[in-house]
User: Which sequence fits this backbone?
């Protein structure tokens, strides 16, 4: 049972900011409520003041600027991102990620900002946004600041956000030419929590197939989404081959620090990271326009060729 | 602090005052009394509360009431325009997409939101749109078909009168064998079907149960004063407030071992200690927290093998080994000596949760004369009556149990849950009392499937003739018996599989532990042993280099076979027909499976699983009764306590009565069921309602029409035996004499003759010998062979079932659509049990899987893209029109078929369920390590 609280539903950001700055620690923001209401029903959170910001329509938008940067209002629903034509065309990894979050009902109501602020280590948007090098705009009555998504979640269910601050916007830079990205999560049911997930964004050199830049983000294998920096090092500056991806997978798996629970052991999650890095990397490379992938996609399924050599 | 919220509900603007902590679901159900939107979990996991807000579906339970301000909300009540149903509602009825009906409103709204945006979705899009709506009954297939049909009808691609279903079977002009629409489908698609949680009586109190946090402890003291003093609390009751017997147990007699409220000891986390009734659910919940119980913790035991040891902590007075069922036939030692091949195996299955979408709920009321009525979901109204009466020391006839619409059960609603608590509280307070379990409480307190540890040894000749089977079954019944010994007995009887084995020795132990209570769950011990006998058969086939189906055919039961309890099978053994059909299917699929590329990461495989299943209780009487009355207008009333739990018994019973009474319109028969003011019926279990209650109804219908035949025969000077009924007309063989039944009834009435009948039926079974198990265990058996095709991702261990075919011998299919629905639902249950489901206990016996986010069950997206069902009608002479059981046989062979397909694909034998990807992965890796 939920304890009584004072409820307000401000219509503007300014109103909301002023309310939460008054309430301080006793206040809590609710966006879609897909996570917070569960915590409240389990009595894990019992705010005295609940500020429902879902009605602030100025925070519900998807904009792609002329230079190709993507700005998403924090209250944009998962479903809106999933079904946005522009995102499907230009930031396919985002819409694909959204497709596999819970069920349509949750995606219709839950927002991307709420998801990020909830900071569940198994959350899907974080690793994708980390791989895309996205930043967050945070506003309070005191002013504005931005923070990299990578630095936003500090620990499980704990984010870099003061009591008087509201996450307002997700800023995704336009990918460099010849950039491809891909996200995959491994879960028991489609749509259920990830046992492990990997997002990767690869940028190839304009003239060769050398990897100029890569960002590998792992989900569900640490207290927050994490960069697999050592694995990135394996790939940067090289022409990526099956063997290198395999190596990157092993390195990333070593960087992962998952817990074991009733769903999966830590060791298995690490194994999943290995496989996912390989598979995600291959797809990201294809999307980056690497056309001379040895043996094409038919063979790209045949990773056992590598295993056989062991 | 309440606030006003204005929104548009089903086209009407409303303004109401709500507490902001209320969800939209609470507002709809409790404030506006729109109970069509269901509460299945209150955690956004099940989708029973899906509604449409501004054109988009949302979980009403996760939608703060305040946030619908100014929005447009559509619930199931807003779908039909008066009597005119929405095309989706019509299609759900036409396709047989409704079973228990509890998920139906949410499904309909998810489907509507989809079709409003996408008028021509493909199957994958439909599955995606419905993936947040859990259904445990249907296997989703007919639901997806219904949405596709509705889309076609809305767009005009298919005329409304056209159905996608095949017309009635050729030649089936009568009611039996017809694809009659379910008699309860209309109220279910309209959201008007009343489940117990939808009931609200004047002056009603709300109850809550205090449960043990410890798995095993002595109760030193219960202090209730603080709770009693809380404003709004009417009663806080403990064991001492029970006037009659504080012992329940569905098996009865010495097997009643569960206190309604614990007084001396608690035996599992969740054992009930006290109950509270208060003015609101909130107050009751608060009061429960104020009750202070002093416990002395006792050593607990969770592993049944440990519990079997002499020095293990005792959970009840006597040994933890409560029952030992023995089956002995021939000489197994001799059998193994003669065997050329011996196969051994150990198999382990976990606790499974039934996961019906409707949590347990009920309302009880005492009238001025002291009669008590309990309205509740249940599979066994007659048992509710008995247990409540014993508890209150009342004559049975003062207690009335009325089964409300029951939102799925699968064996989990055979036992007493909320019933005794609300009856006791109503009895003590004099006011109506309601109790609805939360999802967590439902999972914690209800029964589970027995985990089995099976040691199995098979001996055969090199030609593949089975010579001996020896099996030891250890069943963990948890803290209380429920059906424990009966489950282990059924498992023992079925342990060999449907194969001729001359030498058999089975020992089955029912063991207490401090785990959840294990009881009945769709299959009653047979799913567990089927995993063992079917894996053994595949291992044997491999060792002998034989085709797995050929090996089974070689040993399969046929008419004339003698079972391990030395029962001669005299009729209706359609096993070989199911095997032959399955062989065709498996052969075809194998041809198409391309594993040529040895290096492929994803490997495909095909497997079969076989089962047999006795209809009705094992070697025990389990009769049902029914009354049938033919009324003046020629319509008929059927009365029986038989519980319709979504499986379709009301429809099947109506068809049986209509057939005997010569009525060609199902609406001419009304089945009033599940109320103990009607004749006694056995519980809905053991796949027995069609066979047993169906026979009772048939006999009652014959008796009801008897006076008509007598009178008309006399009037015509004819022999009664030559009269028959057809399409509402009594006819005389070899003559053109005819009289409409209505006129015949009129004729009888003019002479003061009524047309009513009673019937009862008890299947022909005999008790099993305690030492050898010898006896006629069941009157008849159903058989099945299922085929699965899987794909294994050998790098992750992930397995997907791509194709599934079920071939079941069920005798006469009274309603083929219903039968298919049972099969499809059985397949999805089996898929869940194979891959994802497992009840997990923490170190101290605490529940780790308390929600549908932790205890995962299949969604629409987990069903194979190809699911086909085939019915073999090997008619059973003692069954109504040749029918026998289906409900459980639908699910039993699913897991064995899948496990054998996994082996076929990647050479890994899963012998411990569930086959989660990590397990498959680990075994593949181990196998590879061995190869290297």
Assistant:
């Amino acid at each position: 049972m939920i304890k009584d609280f004072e409820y307000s539903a401000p219509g503007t950001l300014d109103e909301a900011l002023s309310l939460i700055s008054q309430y301080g620690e006793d206040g809590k923001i609710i966006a879609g409520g897909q996570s917070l209401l569960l915590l409240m029903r389990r009595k894990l959170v019992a705010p005295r003041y609940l500020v429902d910001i879902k009605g602030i329509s100025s925070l519900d938008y998807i904009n792609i600027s002329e230079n190709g940067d993507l700005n998403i209002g924090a209250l944009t629903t998962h479903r809106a991102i999933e079904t946005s034509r522009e995102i499907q065309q230009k930031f396919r990894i985002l819409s694909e990620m959204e497709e596999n979050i819970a069920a349509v009902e949750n995606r219709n109501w839950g927002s991307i900002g709420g998801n990020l602020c909830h900071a569940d280590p198994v959350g899907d948007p974080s690793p994708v946004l980390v791989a895309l090098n996205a930043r967050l705009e945070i506003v309070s009555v005191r002013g504005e600041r931005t923070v990299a998504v990578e630095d936003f979640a500090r620990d499980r269910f704990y984010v870099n956000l003061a009591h008087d601050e509201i996450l307002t916007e997700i800023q995704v830079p336009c990918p460099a030419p010849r950039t491809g990205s891909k996200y995959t999560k491994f879960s028991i049911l489609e749509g259920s929590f990830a046992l492990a997930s990997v997002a990767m964004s690869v940028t190839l050199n304009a003239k060769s197939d050398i990897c100029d830049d890569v960002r590998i983000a792992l989900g569900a294998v640490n207290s927050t989404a994490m960069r697999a920096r050592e694995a990135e090092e394996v790939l940067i500056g090289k022409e990526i081959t099956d063997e290198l991806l395999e190596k990157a997978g092993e390195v990333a798996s070593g960087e992962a620090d998952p817990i074991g629970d009733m769903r999966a052991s830590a060791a298995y999650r690490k194994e999943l990271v290995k496989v996912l890095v390989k598979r995600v990397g291959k797809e990201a490379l294809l999307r980056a326009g690497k056309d001379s992938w040895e043996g094409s996609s038919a063979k790209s399924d045949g990773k056992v060729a590598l295993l056989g050599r062991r | 602090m309440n606030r006003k919220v204005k929104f548009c509900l089903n086209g009407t603007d409303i303004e109401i005052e709500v507490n902001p902590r209320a969800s939209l679901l609470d507002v709809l159900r409790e404030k506006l009394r729109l109970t069509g939107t269901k509460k299945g979990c209150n955690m956004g996991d099940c989708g029973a509360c899906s509604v449409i807000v501004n054109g988009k579906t949302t979980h009403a339970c996760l939608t703060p009431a305040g946030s619908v301000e100014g929005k447009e909300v559509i619930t199931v009540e807003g779908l039909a325009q008066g009597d005119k149903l929405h095309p989706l509602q019509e299609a759900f009825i036409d396709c047989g997409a409704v079973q228990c009906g509890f998920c139906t409103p949410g499904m309909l709204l998810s489907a509507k939101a989809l079709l409003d945006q996408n008028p021509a979705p493909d199957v994958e899009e439909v599955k995606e749109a419905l993936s947040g709506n859990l259904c445990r009954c249907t296997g989703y297939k007919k639901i997806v078909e219904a949405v596709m049909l509705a889309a076609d009808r809305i767009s005009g691609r298919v005329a409304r009168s056209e159905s996608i279903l095949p017309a009635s079977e050729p030649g089936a002009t009568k009611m039996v064998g017809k694809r009659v629409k379910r008699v309860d489908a209309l109220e279910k698609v309209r959201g008007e079907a009343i489940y117990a949680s939808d009931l609200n009586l004047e002056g009603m109190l709300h109850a809550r149960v205090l449960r043990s946090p410890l798995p095993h402890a002595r109760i030193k003291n219960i202090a209730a004063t603080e709770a009693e003093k809380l404003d709004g609390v009417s009663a806080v009751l403990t064991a001492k407030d029970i006037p009659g017997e504080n012992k329940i147990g569905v098996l009865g007699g010495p097997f009643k071992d569960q206190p309604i409220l614990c007084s001396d000891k608690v035996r599992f986390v969740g054992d009930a200690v006290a109950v509270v009734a208060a003015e609101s659910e909130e107050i009751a919940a608060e009061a429960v927290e104020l009750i202070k119980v002093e416990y002395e913790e006792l050593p607990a035991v969770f592993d049944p093998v440990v519990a079997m040891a002499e020095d293990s902590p005792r959970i009840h007075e006597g040994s933890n080994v409560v029952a030992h069922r023995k089956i002995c036939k021939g000489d197994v030692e001799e059998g193994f000596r003669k065997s050329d091949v011996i196969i051994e195996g150990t198999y382990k299955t976990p606790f499974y949760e039934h996961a019906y979408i409707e949590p347990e709920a009920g309302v009880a009321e005492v009238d001025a004369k002291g009669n008590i009525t309990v309205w509740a979901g249940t599979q066994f109204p007659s048992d509710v009556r008995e247990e409540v009466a014993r508890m209150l020391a009342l004559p049975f006839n003062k207690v009335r149990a009325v089964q409300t619409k029951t939102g799925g059960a699968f064996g989990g609603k055979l036992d007493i849950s909320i019933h005794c608590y609300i009856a006791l509280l109503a009895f003590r307070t004099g006011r109506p009392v309601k109790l609805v379990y939360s999802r967590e409480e439902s999972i914690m307190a209800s029964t589970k499937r027995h985990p089995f540890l099976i040691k199995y040894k098979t001996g055969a000749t090199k030609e593949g003739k089975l010579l001996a089977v020896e099996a030891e079954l250890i069943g963990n019944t948890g803290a209380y018996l429920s059906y424990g010994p009966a489950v282990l007995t059924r498992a023992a009887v079925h342990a060999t599989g449907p194969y001729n084995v001359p030498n058999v020795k089975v020992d089955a132990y029912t063991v207490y532990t401090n785990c959840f209570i294990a009881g009945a769950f769709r299959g009653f011990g047979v799913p567990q042993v089927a995993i063992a006998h079917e894996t053994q058969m595949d291992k044997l086939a491999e060792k002998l280099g034989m085709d797995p189906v050929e090996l089974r055919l070689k040993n399969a039961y046929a008419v004339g076979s003698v079972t391990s309890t030395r029962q001669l099978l005299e009729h209706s053994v359609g096993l070989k027909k199911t095997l032959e059909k399955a062989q065709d299917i498996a052969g075809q699929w194998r041809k198409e499976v391309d594993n040529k590329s040895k290096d492929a990461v994803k490997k495909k495989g095909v497997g079969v699983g076989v089962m047999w299943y006795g209809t009705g209780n094992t070697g025990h009487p389990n009769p049902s009764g029914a009354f049938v009355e033919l009324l003046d207008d020629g319509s008929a009333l059927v009365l029986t306590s038989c519980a319709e739990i979504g499986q379709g018994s009301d429809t099947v019973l109506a068809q049986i009565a209509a057939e005997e009474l010569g009525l060609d319109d199902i609406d001419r028969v009304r089945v009033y069921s599940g109320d103990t003011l009607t004749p006694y019926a056995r519980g809905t279990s053991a796949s027995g309602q069609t066979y047993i209650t169906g026979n009772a109804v048939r006999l009652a219908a014959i008796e009801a029409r008897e006076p008509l035949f007598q009178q008309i025969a006399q009037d015509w000077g004819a022999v009664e035996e030559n009269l028959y009924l057809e399409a509402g007309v009594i006819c005389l063989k070899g003559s053109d004499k005819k009289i409409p039944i209505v006129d015949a009834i009129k004729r009888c009435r003019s002479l003061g003759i009524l047309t009513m009948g009673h019937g009862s039926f008890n299947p022909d079974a005999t008790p099993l010998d305690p030492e050898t198990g010898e006896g006629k265990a069941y009157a008849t058996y159903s058989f099945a062979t299922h085929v699965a095709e899987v794909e294994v991702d050998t790098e992750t261990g992930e397995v997907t079932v791509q194709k599934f075919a079920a071939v079941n011998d069920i005798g006469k299919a009274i309603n083929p659509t219903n039968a298919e629905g049972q099969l499809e639902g059985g397949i999805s249950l089996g898929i869940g049990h194979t891959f994802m489901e497992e009840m997990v206990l923490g170190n101290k016996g605490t529940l780790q899987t308390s929600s549908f986010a932790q205890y995962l069950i299949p969604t629409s997206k987990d069903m194979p893209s190809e699911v086909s069902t085939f019915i073999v009608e090997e008619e059973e002479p003692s069954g109504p029109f040749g029918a026998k059981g289906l409900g459980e046989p639908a699910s039993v062979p699913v897991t064995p078929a899948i496990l054998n397909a996994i082996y076929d694909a990647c050479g890994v034998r899963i012998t411990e369920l569930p086959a989660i990807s990590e397990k498959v992965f680990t075994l593949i890796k181990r196998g590879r390590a061995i190869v290297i």
About this structure: Chain A has three domains: 6-52, 58-172, 179-288. Chain A touches chain B through 50 residues (CB under 8 Å). The mean pLDDT of chain A is 92.
